[in-house]
Write a structure and sequence with these properties.
Chain lengths: ~180, ~775
């Protein structure tokens, strides 16, 4: 703790550089912290905020397992720095369900069996969420395009595409 | 035959763990943190083959925060499933680029990485074995001590003073006579490169080793809790009771997490760090570089056929470019001798399968276990034969296909209840509207449009490769609500085994599926034994064990109820959560009233907590005869077929899979939704092998594409436009409700079907995988 930011402050200095202050909103909760300037956003979320839902599949921006939504856009949190999230609003898989109830998208993932091992699922959900936020009625092509940065080795994608389609439909009908 | 009505079997229940996985609650080893936990990093060999002249770890050891630095001398342990040939850290010599030469445990990853960079190694680079031919030549030996290596005798056959880790053979009938009888002899060579399993969660383990005793606890992303315990016990020469293996959710396996991998290394690091828990999480690059692959393979096939298409002789040399260590590779190679002729009746056969040591990253099990590779050869060969005979490749297959009364390569007789390959082939041919190859003219017409379409079919088969005494157990306990807790030794890595087993338990007990909880997080101290979660054998074996556990549970309840009713146990039956008297159905006791024994009105109690178990052991299996390959290698065959329609861009060589119809004789489908998942997922993995994936090595044996950038796996854009799963149900007599395994099979023969469709589309026969845009475009251009 650096003493400036109260309970929510984390300093884990690996690089030896002076820590940098960071303010952001994660899943609706305000976070103030100072962090190692070389720390990735993924490591900040996982190791400091203990939000382990966001996964690491490659650490190189290739697989999408670490996808989160930052200011409405998907980002691979493994290749951006925590400090770049200063002032940002962040949504991770832990923020999808509201009031103890799964979101429609999550429900459809279960219903369509859009997951097997589940390791890609958090990132996949975030890419799908961002797509539906900007396009409530995506075509199959648009869904594939939006998910193309998220690898899944188990499902063959078709059930995921189906889940996104039916979630889109339900959201249009139910969340007017 | 009257279809039996089941309450739960055959119903598409949703997977039990879905909610945890969509909320981010599901915890994997990647997420595991323990008090005092250290982090490990590794130093890898940059050379394919070299002598280690010296290693200086002094600077690494002096770095603050470093708790242990180990080199080969500090970890003098050998591991191996079938050939005991691998050190957990290389010593004196490195055998592949990527092999571990030193390991560090430190307070965090950054410190560990820094320490690794401070280790200085001096190598003397040696000439290496790069290719199958160099391996066969044997001028350089990957293991100079091959004659002294310990191995599983009678099953594998390492050749003295060679690079042949095992040479397995089949000799059936009279091959000379078979070729003499043939009207046509077709010879071809087929190849495919090594590929990566690429589970989304890389290998990761945490170990805590008591420095003052043998006690060792390992948490691992592994498919093999009990094999792992076994191998650790053997490697460290400690009793199994001192080892506890814990496996929570795992982020994909596909065979790559079977057996033993990084676990012993983490264990020795923990011991060296005075018993602090150590976590080792492989980077994606290490996953490609250091951890095993599916072997590359070359199949040289010679088939003799009559004019009418009947096969008279089949000869094959399957040579596996299996890398520096044998691991599962030799067992993969072994499958070729009993399955490497495909699903056909072959009277005269000779197969040689040689698993070869080369100075490359080694190979292990991968979904399909050798069958995708051998079937790439066999099923392409069938199409080429059909072309030469001017026959429809469907007809050629049907002419030779295994049917009741046929004998397999190892001499096993096929019955209707073994499953029906012909029904599978017919189903997919019908689904894609197969009417034979298109004509040259039709092809030329299509070429003008820049896009050509083609259809292809391929047959497949697989039986689990398992030890003859493979066994499994299940434990069931009833709770006071009349629900049961089921413990099994299989790892649910997304294939849905826990959901399927809950259905079986609920079916037998006649209770709602929701009342069965299969205990997650396998712990070898608590869960009953299961050999390995591999080989698509669990539905059959585990399903039977769970069935028996439920039946034992019912028997126990009836014994107590018989006393309550003062009736014979034979007069009691069960239904919907009650034990009742068959003559007086209103006399009934709910399960929950029996769960801790029965209490009479006056307070007297009888019975006790209900705990039951069931076991299942493979029966009748034999080791194969070393010369002829005769014997009974596995419990059940699963047959299947793919029919595919593709579109090829003539300029770019890009293949789009328009439709894939995939049929499997599953015996009985326990949960269609889950099996569909295996089919659709397996098909796409097969498409990955068909058109995208493959390791590339430089001339000095360096892996050139150790990342997703250059070693691509399919994305959503590569998914077929349509996959049609089809299930044939010829019930397996010894399967639960007739079921047999299908988890690996969807991947097998996908490349073959695509390759055959590519011929139909372009008129060109491809012999090598992958059918990547570059390779396809090049051949099309050459053929213009
Ligand atoms: S972990 Fe970030 S893209 Fe793979
Ligand atoms: S569900 Fe396993 S990687 Fe997608």
């Amino acid at each position: 703790m650096c003493g400036e930011h109260g309970n929510n402050c984390f300093v884990h200095v690996d690089s030896g550089l002076p820590p940098v202050g960071l303010k952001c909103v994660v899943n609706g909760e305000e976070i103030q912290a100072c962090v190692d300037p070389t720390m990735t956003l993924l490591n900040f979320l996982r190791n400091e905020l203990k939000l382990f839902g966001t996964k690491e599949g490659c650490g190189e921006g290739e697989c999408g397992a670490c996808t989160i939504i930052m200011n409405g856009e998907t980002v691979n949190s493994c290749i951006i720095l925590a400090v770049e999230a200063d002032g940002a609003e962040i949504l991770t898989v832990e923020g999808l369900a509201k009031d103890g109830e799964l979101s429609i998208l999550q429900q459809e993932f279960i219903k369509m069996d859009a997951l097997q091992c589940g390791f890609c699922t958090p990132g996949m959900l975030m890419s799908a969420r961002a797509l539906l936020d900007r396009n409530p009625n995506p075509s199959e092509e648009e869904i594939k395009e939006a998910l193309a940065g998220n690898f899944c080795r188990c499902t063959g994608y078709i059930p995921i595409i189906d889940a996104v389609k039916s979630a889109a439909k339900r959201e249009r009908e139910e969340l007017k | 035959m009257v279809e039996k009505e089941y309450r739960h079997i055959g119903k598409s229940y949703l997977r039990k763990e879905g909610q945890e996985k969509v909320t981010g609650q599901a915890m994997y080893i990647h997420d595991l943190e323990l008090p005092g936990m250290l982090h490990a990093k590794l130093l890898h060999s940059p050379h394919a083959r070299a002598k280690i002249l010296s290693i200086d770890t002094s600077k690494a050891k002096a770095l603050p925060g470093v708790k242990a630095v180990l080199v080969g001398e500090d970890a003098p342990y050998l591991v191996g499933l079938y050939m005991i040939d691998k050190r957990i850290i290389a010593r004196d010599e490195v055998r592949y680029q990527g092999e571990v030469v030193a390991a560090v445990a430190a307070i965090d990853e950054v410190t560990a990485e820094k320490a690794v960079s401070l280790i200085e190694v001096e190598y003397e680079v040696l000439p290496a074995v790069h290719t199958i031919d160099e391996a066969l030549e044997g001028k350089i030996l990957v293991h100079e001590d091959i004659n002294d290596l310990d191995y599983m005798k009678g099953v594998f056959f390492p050749q003295p003073d060679s690079n042949i880790a095992s040479w397995n053979t089949t000799k059936k009938g009279d091959i000379e006579k078979g070729f003499a009888e043939a009207d046509l002899i077709v010879e071809n060579e087929f190849t495919l490169p090594a590929v990566a399993h690429a589970p989304m969660e890389t290998h990761v383990s945490v170990a805590q080793a008591d420095p003052y005793s043998n006690k060792l606890k390992v948490w691992s992303s592994s498919q093999s809790p009990f094999t792992l315990r076994d191998m650790l016990a053997k490697a460290f020469n400690i009793p199994r009771k001192d080892i506890e293996v814990v496996i929570p959710y795992i982020g994909g396996g596909f065979g790559g997490k079977a057996g033993i991998h990084i676990e012993p290394l983490v264990a020795v690091l923990s011991k060296a760090a005075k018993g602090r828990p150590v976590k080792l999480k492989m980077t994606r690059e290490e996953e490609f570089n250091q951890l095993p692959t599916r072997a590359g393979m070359r199949g040289r096939i010679k088939t003799g056929v009559k004019k009418n298409g009947k096969i008279t002789a089949f000869q094959a040399y399957y040579d596996w470019d299996s890398g520096a260590y044998a691991d599962y590779g030799v067992n993969v190679g072994k499958t070729a001798v009993y399955s490497g002729g495909g699903g056909y009746e072959i009277e005269n056969a000779e197969i040689h399968s040689r698993t070869l040591y080369t100075n490359k990253v080694f190979s292990t099990a991968y979904r399909g276990f050798g069958h995708l590779e051998t079937h790439w050869s066999v099923e392409r060969q069938m199409d080429i034969i059909a072309q030469k005979l001017g026959m429809d490749p469907f007809e050629l297959r049907m002419k030779n296909i295994l049917k009741p009364g046929s004998r397999t390569l190892s001499g096993e007789v096929i019955y209707q209840h073994t499953g029906s390959p012909s029904e599978c082939l017919e189903a997919v041919a019908k689904e894609i509207g197969w009417t034979g190859y298109q004509t040259k003219e039709e092809r030329l017409e299509q070429f003008k449009t820049g896009k050509v379409r083609g259809k292809g079919i391929a047959l497949l088969q697989k039986a689990p490769a398992m030890p003859t005494n493979t066994s499994t157990g299940a434990i069931m306990q009833m709770d006071e609500d009349g629900g049961v807790k089921l413990m099994i030794g299989a790892v649910d890595m997304g294939q849905g085994v826990n959901t399927a087993m809950a259905q079986i338990a609920a079916e037998e007990l006649d209770i709602p599926v929701e009342k069965v909880e299969v205990s997650w997080e396998i712990n070898s101290d608590k869960h009953p034994y299961d050999w390995n979660t591999v080989a698509s054998k669990y539905t059959l074996m585990g399903g039977n064990a769970v069935k028996k556990a439920a039946q034992d549970m019912l028997r126990q309840m009836k014994e107590v109820a018989a006393q309550v009713f003062r009736a014979h146990i034979e007069e009691l039956a069960h239904k919907d959560g009650y034990i009742y008297h068959i003559k007086h159905p209103d006399k009934k006791i709910p399960y929950n009233k029996l769960s801790r024994g029965y209490v009479f009105e006056n307070g007297n109690a009888i019975g006790g907590p209900l705990i039951s178990h069931g076991v299942y052991t493979a029966s009748g299996l034999t080791n194969l005869d070393p010369e002829t390959g005769e014997g009974l290698p596995a419990l059940a065959w699963t047959f299947g077929a793919h029919g595919v329609e593709i579109e090829v861009d003539v300029e770019t060589g890009e293949i789009t899979v328009l439709k894939m119809a995939s049929a499997f004789d599953a015996g009985k489908v326990i949960n269609k939704k889950l099996v569909d998942g295996q089919v659709i997922g397996g098909v796409l993995q097969g498409i990955g092998s068909a058109i995208l994936e493959g390791y590339k090595f430089s001339s000095d044996g360096t892996l050139l594409n150790p990342s997703f950038t250059d070693n691509k796996i399919p994305t959503a854009k590569d998914a077929p436009l349509e996959v049609v799963p089809i299930y044939i149900e010829n019930e397996q007599v010894d399967g639960p409700y007739g079921a047999r395994g299908v988890a690996e099979h969807p991947m097998i023969s996908v490349p073959s079907a695509v390759g055959n469709a590519l011929y139909d589309a372009t008129g060109i026969n491809f012999h090598s995988l992958p059918l990547s845009p570059e390779n396809v475009a090049l051949r099309i251009a050459e053929n213009k």
